[in-house]
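Encode chain A's predicted structure.
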Amino acid sequence: MAKKQRFRDTKKNKTTKGIEKRVKPTIPYANNRQRAKAFLTDIFMLFMPIMYAVIYLVMEGREGASEQKLLAWVYVMIPYLLLLTFFMWKDKGRTPGARSQGLTVIDFYTLDKPSLFSIVFRNLMLPFSLFIPIFWFVPLFRKDKRTIHDLLSATCLIVDPNPPKNLEVKTKSTK
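Encoded structure for chain A:
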């Protein structure tokens, strides 16, 4: 006797023995507003203090920094990218901005914390996605809102399913 054909079972929504349907997990991707807030928080908490320190301590003022603009950018970007990498590696894929928005970076394929290589590569590709304007529009046309540095490093920014517990401040009520 001949076996039943699978396409008939599929058409009738029946499951055949030995054939399992793969269920793709839904990933709570971060939207563009959350990404922008996290990015701006990182800029003001990490990038700006480094920039001020480089301009006024290393370059001895605005005049010195304006004379050697490329060197000033190198002196600012290297510590900034190292700090981002450090935070992402030690804090489960979160920078201070991502932590404030309840976001985390995960490996796209394993859905775990990304490897150190992925984090370093993602942060090295970050300036390219910031300084080349055509790459600004990539997340606008993608359903998962991944940027070019996310695509190249096989990572994604998601809403953290297990956010860290916030510390509650107890206030004394006076009567």
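Confidence is low (pLDDT under 50) at residues 167-171.
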